[in-house]
Amino acid sequence: MKPIIIGIFASFFFAFTFILNRSMDLNGGSWIWSASLRYFFMVPFLFIIVIARKNLKPLFSEMKKKPGTWLLWSFVGFGLFYAPLCFSAAYAPGWLIAATWQITIISGSLLAPLFYETVLTEHGPKHIKGKIPLKGLAMSLIILLGIILMQLQQASELTVIAVTLGILPVVAASFAYPLGNRKMMDVCGGRLDVFQRVLGMTIASLPFWIILSIYGYFTVGLPSMGQTIQSSLVAISSGVIATILFFQATDLVRGNMQKLAVVEATQSMEVLFALLGEVWLLNSAFPTPLSWMGVVLVMAGMVLHSYISNKKEAPVGRKASA
Predict the structure, then answer these.
(1) Residue 188, CA distances (Å) to 65, 120, 206, 212, 256 in order
(2) So where does this one cross the membrane (predicted)?
(3) What pLDDT sits at residue 320?
(4) Of 9, 29, 133, 199, which sits with the fewest C-beta atoms within 10 Å of its C-beta?
(5) pTM of structure
């Protein structure tokens, strides 16, 4: 249960991303600065944490071994995840982006065959190619059904542009984030803690953010003070606190694709937190009874997902916890 609880806390802080990104867009801020400023602000906070833990040298030593790999998967896990998410905020409300983002629940499960997991056999630990957790995937579909109900009334009022530019980039991001995260877990192999890994990925993604910010400077100019402040809040709440919590939760179940899918499913709580946050902070419409039915389904799906993940299995062929 510990990884699930950590994942839910992470989803609470992740929800600030959708709320603040929408707020910045409504105030005339460009998605380019919403995306790049977050990672620029994350660097000093993470540096302080890693230096305080005296873990900076091992991180740089690890990054020097495979710099190209770090650049590639950090670009995928952070760049191709957050830039599309901020881009979508210009075309769709935060609740819709948060709801669409829950496709990552299924995306993470579908990525299982690209990785290996550890099973315990009578001959000792064995690495086998991961399989799509069909039972867990069924529970994910219950969660997604709840999300659809939550947003059904508002979604019927969206334009084609909002659907195309507000949803499709988020779908792409939903695959990029778990892919980059899992690949970097494999690359690190447990040699780095979660703080080191997040800092390393942030540093390795900086070339992309620098290029994007240069483009932003020549196309939309410098960001306003308000957008800068809100981006710093996103960096702290979502970029540092939520990312570290989420990566910590995934590290606890590393090597077990079914439990990893459960942790990734905790992100469904972002919809509830983002919806309530927009009602409170941005004066959005209060959810309808149909939306609250969706909330109940999301909760039920989470409980069933957790139950299936933690069912006892036979001693031989039992999946090993990381």
Answers:
(1) 11, 22, 19, 27, 16
(2) 31-51, 71-92, 98-120, 132-152, 158-177, 198-217, 229-249, 261-283, 289-308
(3) 32
(4) 9
(5) 0.79
Say how many domains are in the chain: 1
Alpha carbons 100 and 58: distance in angstroms, whole number: 38
Lookup result for tokens 């389904």: 297
Inter-CA distances, 77 with 71, 193, 235, 279, Å: 10, 17, 16, 30
Residue 248 has pLDDT above 70, yes or no: yes
User: What is the pLDDT at residue 255?
Assistant: 67
The first and second tokens of residue 158, run together, are 């969206």
In the block, tokens 């982006």 appear at 97
Round to whole Å and give the CA distance between 265 and 261. Answer: 6
The C-alpha atoms of residue 208 and residue 75 are separated, in whole angstroms, by 7
DSSP H stretches of helix in the chain: 2-26, 31-52, 56-65, 67-74, 80-88, 94-101, 104-110, 134-155, 160-188, 194-219, 225-234, 243-252, 257-265, 269-281, 289-309
Which helix (H) or strand (E) covers residue 126, if one does?
Answer: strand 124-129
Q: Could you report the per-residue pLDDT of 212-225, keeping only the tens digit for each?
A: 999 999 999 999 99
pLDDT tens per residue, range 203-212: 999 999 999 9
Question: Among 40-54, 239-253, 296-310, where is mean pLDDT lowest?
Answer: 296-310
| Structural domain boundaries, residue 109 | 2-319
